[in-house]
Specification:
The protein is α/β, with parallel strands linked by helices. The chain is about 55% helix and about 15% strand. It contains 17 helices and 15 strands. The strands form 3 sheets. A 6-stranded antiparallel sheet has the order 2-1-4-5-6-7, covered by helices on one side. Strand 5 and strand 6 form a beta hairpin. Helix 7 packs antiparallel against helix 9, helix 11 packs across helix 13 and helix 13 packs parallel to helix 14.
Length: about 575
């Protein structure tokens, strides 16, 4: 709850220190005494818009400090932890407003942004009144309020988990589908490359080995040509051996008695023939050793051409072709696996979506039931508030095409102010006074579910009196049994129901003086009233400027009835 409020140099307040208690505290005073200044100060401290005009005239800055006593599990502590702010026994919020329009904010003496201040402030205090910027009128909060009332908060959290699971499964399938689509654009090329490189069957180091073999065979080709020519000269078509052999045979047939004459020549020719045969043998052996095979050279050159053409095609060295082939094969295998993986991811997405939608439908049905119960509970509060002909409607619309972490329902509080009239959003249909009473009825019903620990009502009783004002006071008192309630009021029936009564006034006269000195600057003071002074203030609220005994007696009756 709000334990204390300290204000320095804000508008008409020079210095104000208030200690607040639980229960219902009312703030009363003459019109223009400065009640709105208190609310503006609290709003500023909770992250409201700053304005240099809030600073008291002649001062460089003003400051508002709020101190809260919180339960250990209060949601504000989670915000502090998330923002890495000090979490102490008492939460102290301070907002400094400069006269030039700048502001500074701190929580437990640690500087914070206005956004963080608003987030923390929203969990601490709710302001309710006749203005559009007050709590409960924002439709964005209505779904959470209905869930809190229906006890559906745990269901919403579980649905959020299913939503995240579905979203993750959907994103994984979408990513895989995108990757597969990109891969399929190159699938034909990859398949062709795998087929081509597999058929080529390139091996690491093959190109270098073939090049060396080709060079060796080209060198052997040159030697083999000479050897072949020599062999042809010795033992081929141009060989002298046949003619020499024929010549020897003719000489031997004609030798007769001239052996001595012919023998030397025949022996020499025989030696020449033996030498030629020996030369032919050597030449044949040398040619065989040269190992030149034209067909093999042709095959080597064709292989080198194929390897080098593939290397140019795939922009790589010939030795890298096996690696490229392996990579393309892996991509092709991955492409095949991606199709199977996508099928599994699609199945997982469908399963996650089914689980989410089933839970979302169940939550929608539960919300519809809670809405009917809430409408009946709020409706029961309306007749005493002079809204007996009005109707409160919790409008729940379903749009399965717009799913989210909290389901696919939109919730908005609608009202019908008169039978036969068209219902509409509470903020648009209800007048200022009606809106305040609708909000009070709703807050009474929601008091122990999803409420901030401190509620501030700004003139919620405007435009009503008598029994209606008393009904408002009764409900504020009931509400204060569960949360701390502060109420700015002009209704004596509301003031009489309070546990604590603060009087707001301008320029309280010094002790012993009937009026403040005329030269004294105008300031606003706040004082806690004793039982006697409280009776007098309620009598003033009943009678006006002149307090009569009849007014005092009426005040006594109100206080007695409240007790």
């Amino acid at each position: 709850m709000l334990a204390s409020l300290s204000i320095r140099d804000i508008v008409l307040i020079e210095k104000l220190d208030l200690t607040l208690s639980d229960g219902l505290t009312v703030l009363t005073g003459e019109t223009g005494a400065g009640k709105s200044i208190l609310l503006d100060s609290v709003s500023l401290a909770l992250g409201g818009r700053g304005d240099g005009s809030l600073v008291r005239h002649g001062q460089a800055k003003g400051q508002v400090t709020l101190a809260f006593d919180l339960e250990p599990d209060h949601p504000a502590r989670a915000v502090l932890s998330a923002a890495d702010l000090p979490d102490e026994d008492q939460l102290i919020i301070r907002r400094t407003q400069m006269a030039d329009g700048r502001t500074r904010a701190s929580v437990n003496d640690a500087a914070v942004s206005v956004q963080t201040l608003r987030l923390i402030g929203a969990s601490l205090v709710e302001l309710h009144g006749q203005h559009a910027d007050r709590a409960l009128v924002d439709p964005a909060t209505h779904r959470a309020l209905l869930d809190a009332y229906g006890g559906l908060t745990a269901d919403v959290a579980a649905l959020g988990g299913l939503w995240r699971r579905w979203r993750e499964a959907r994103d994984a399938a979408r990513e895989e589908r995108t990757r597969l689509a990109a891969a399929e654009k190159e699938a034909d090329f990859i398949r062709h490359a795998v087929e081509e490189l597999s058929e080529l069957g390139a091996e690491a180091g093959e190109e270098a080995a073939l090049s060396e073999r080709r060079s060796a065979m080209m060198r052997a080709e040159k030697i083999a040509t000479d050897l072949s020519e020599a062999l042809d000269a010795v033992g081929g078509g141009g060989s002298p051996i046949p003619s020499l052999s024929a010549a020897v045979r003719r000489l031997e047939r004609r030798a007769g008695d001239s052996q001595e004459l012919i023998r030397p020549a025949v022996e020499a020719i025989d030696q020449a023939l033996d030498a030629l045969e020996l030369a032919r043998g050597h030449l044949e052996n040398a040619l065989a050793d040269a190992n030149f095979e034209p067909r093999e050279l042709e095959r080597i050159e064709e292989r080198l051409f194929a390897l080098r053409a593939a290397a140019r095609k795939y922009a790589a060295a010939p030795d890298a072709l096996p690696e490229i082939a392996a990579r393309f094969s892996a991509q092709l295998e991955q492409l095949d696996q991606s199709e199977a993986r996508l099928a599994r991811l699609d199945a997982a997405e469908a399963e996650a979506e089914g689980a989410y939608r089933a839970a979302a439908e169940a939550l929608s049905r539960a919300r519809a039931g809670a809405a009917l119960t809430l409408d009946a509970a709020v409706g029961a509060e309306l007749p005493p508030l002079k809204l007996e002909r009005a109707e409160f409607l919790t409008r729940v619309t379903h749009d399965p095409q717009a799913p989210g972490a909290e389901g696919h329902d939109a919730v908005e509080f609608w009202v019908r102010t008169n039978p036969g009239s068209r219902p509409g959003p509470m903020m648009k249909v209800a007048s200022g006074g009606e809106l305040a009473r609708f909000l009070l009825a709703l807050k009474v019903v929601l008091a122990d579910r999803g409420s901030a620990p401190t509620l501030i009502f700004d003139e919620i009783d405007t435009g009503v009196g008598g029994a209606v004002a008393d009904a408002i006071g009764q409900r504020l008192a009931r509400l204060s049994q569960k949360v701390q309630v502060l109420c700015v009021t002009h209704a004596p029936q509301v003031a009489a129901r309070a546990h604590h009564h603060l009087l707001i006034a301008k320029n309280a006269a010094p002790a012993g003086a009937a009026e403040p000195p005329p030269e004294a600057p105008v300031t606003t003071k706040v004082a806690a009233l004793t039982p006697a002074l409280r009776r007098e203030e309620i009598a003033r609220m009943l009678a006006g400027a002149t307090v009569t005994n009849e007014a005092r007696a009426a005040a006594d009756r109100l206080l007695k009835a409240a007790r």
